[in-house]
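Notes from hallway chat w/ T.B., transcribed later so I don't forget. T.B. wanted the structure written out for a chain they're using in a teaching module, and asked if we could keep both sequence and structure tokens in one place. Agreed to drop them here.
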Amino acid sequence: MKVIVIGCTHAGTFATQQILTEHPDWQVTVYERNDNLSFLSCGIALWVGGHVSDPKKMFYSSPEALASLGATMKMEHDVLDVDTVTKTIRVKDLKTGEESTDTYDKLVVTTGSAPVIPPIEGIDDPKVQLCKNWTHATQIKEESKKINSAIVIGAGYIGAELAEQLSLLGKKVTLIDALPRVLAKNFDETITARVEQDYRDHGVHLALGEKVVKFSGTDEITVTTDHSSYTADIAIMAAGFRPNTGLMKGKVEMIGNGAIITNEYMQSSDPDIYAAGDSSVVHYNPTGKDDYIPLATNAVRQGILVGKNIAGPTEKYLGTQASSAVELYGKTVASSGLTVEGAKARGVVVDHVVLEQNYRPEFMLTTTPILMELTWDPETRVVKGGAFFSSYDCAQSANVISLAIQTEMTIDTLSMVDMFFQPNFDQPINYVNALAGAAVAKAAETVGAK
């Protein structure tokens, strides 16, 4: 069997490893346009802030490692075209400029995502930097040593982390986003209000609800929005990502943004073409529908499933809750599943409750509160999402909520599920149990009101 893998970051790396683990005698060729693979871009802000021991450790695999498994590695090769009828690809060697063709029995499309680059005047200014790959990371790291100020555009996870780390380095930072809140797609206002106050307390200027319309300047860069203008030494675009799937347009079915639609075995509408990672949809369990959620965790699992299913349907995709967490100014911010705003945007009806309480007993010498939110289906009482904010490391609580969503647990079950008590760690009623208990109490009030 001859397999071609196009693109090799997370999904491509794990797909290649799993294919060769399951089928060591197969011929697997990997085409990657960069000179590296498996870069953990989620660590860029941490590297900029000086929290990474060795940037080389931000790569968990290498061309040599995959080659040792039996893969033929074609680094710095760009796939220009795919002919799904003849099962042929056309490739350009980026070092020599030479073009060639290759054939496949099975094709794996793991081309990932590309930064969203709006058609804004002046966006090609060299002082406007991107934040996605190793090259971008190296540029930002070097610039961070020289600059006194920066403008970060995009207040999702990547932009939020960059703004935080740059401010902690003593830089003057402006954080711009067209949405009205920081991390607006990940958390409701109950939590983002606390996050935003931490930014202000650390001198970050928040320009929220503002759309960038122009870049200009010579020695410095001026970012003009529909409300104001801001000037700094550099600007960093962190406005999100889009599927990098132009190569497959018209050849497999996609959703509106270009993400490739796959079945539960990672097959596209062409049964000999598989897709995974940022180039494909995910099955979002809180809604039961396909969605686009570019996360490394999704890419890794989907890549593994490509390898398990490429010889035939074997193991189904379990879907995702899009669980995630970030540390900002010493605070843990973690979530899984639907927020109230996320549910509204997707046309899903949820109820929700907010609870804040100390994570362990007051008789301990120290304790600290956790601000929590839970969403659930008001008809079935099934858990749909949860979020946590605290100076206590409560990140793993998001994984508890993820498991609850995955297993379609009700708020009633979550309130009573067995969790240990030990004063060092929690209250007699664990804070996740207490959160679900508050949901049960609110649900009972709602029924009583009817």
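Follow-up for T.B.: The mean pLDDT is 97. Might be a good example for the class.
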